[in-house]
């Protein structure tokens, strides 16, 4: 049985959680998310509405989805209350980012400017020309968009130029002149 799955989920203040059959919806100050529970997993809300317990049937697949479901629901509750954030930084001479409407424009060393459409459920800002901040209540959407932007120009190992997460350390290699 999953150790993570056994832990009850605390419903934070200001978060409204409703469970109708297999459909679980979470609403809070940052937004609204919903999740459909798998048939192997059941959820039970306490009488006071402050804790949610995830239980699973016996079986290999059910055990696999037990902890996963608990983690996803916990991330949803945290996300609608506090939100998630990923920060990216551009490193390289002439590397610039800007935001025009719902489109992120990047000049990262290619002949043309790269454009990335921002999903409607996310908030993207550029505090300056070399930093990008992605915010949203859905942890998966925030991480996926940040990874998609990073993949446009990954940091290269010789000079370290590219788009990286803030605080990410790139191990630089010695060039061919080093012996």
Q: TL;DR?
A:
By secondary structure, this protein is an alpha+beta fold.
Task: Please provide a written account of the structure.
The chain is an alpha+beta fold. 22% of the residues lie in helices and 36% in strands. The chain has helices at 3-6, 60-81, 139-151, and strands at 9-10, 16-20, 23-28, 31-36, 41-45, 51-56, 84-91, 96-100, 103-107, 114-117, 123-125, 131-136, 162-165. The radius of gyration is 21 Å and the shape is elongated.
Q: Topology, pairings included?
A:
Elements: H1 3-6, E1 9-10, E2 16-20, E3 23-28, E4 31-36, E5 41-45, E6 51-56, H2 60-81, E7 84-91, E8 96-100, E9 103-107, E10 114-117, E11 123-125, E12 131-136, H3 139-151, E13 162-165
Antiparallel strand pairs: 1-6, 2-3, 3-4, 5-6, 7-12, 7-13, 8-9, 9-10, 11-12
> What is the approximate shape?
elongated
The beta-strand count equals: 13
Kindly provide the radius of gyration, computed on alpha-carbon positions and rounded to a whole number of angstroms. Answer: 21 Å
Q: What level of helicity do the residues show?
A: 10-25%
Discrete helix count: 3
Low-pLDDT segments, ≥5 res: none
């Amino acid at each position: 049985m999953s150790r993570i799955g056994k832990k009850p989920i605390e419903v934070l203040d200001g978060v409204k959680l409703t469970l109708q059959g297999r459909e679980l919806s979470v609403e809070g100050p940052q937004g609204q998310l919903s999740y459909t529970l798998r048939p192997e997993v059941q959820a039970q809300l306490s009488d006071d509405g402050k804790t949610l317990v995830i239980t699973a049937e016996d079986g290999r697949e059910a055990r696999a989805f037990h902890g996963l479901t608990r983690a996803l629901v916990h991330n949803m509750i945290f996300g609608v209350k506090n939100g998630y954030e990923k920060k990216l930084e551009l490193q390289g001479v002439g590397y610039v980012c800007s935001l025009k409407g719902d489109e992120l424009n990047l000049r990262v060393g290619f002949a043309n400017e790269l454009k990335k459409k921002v999903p409607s459920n996310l908030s993207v800002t550029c505090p300056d020309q070399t930093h990008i901040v992605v915010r949203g209540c859905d942890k998966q959407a925030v991480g996926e968009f940040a990874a998609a932007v990073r993949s446009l120009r990954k940091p290269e190992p010789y000079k370290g130029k590219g788009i990286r997460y803030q605080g990410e350390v790139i191990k630089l290699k010695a060039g061919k002149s080093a012996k």
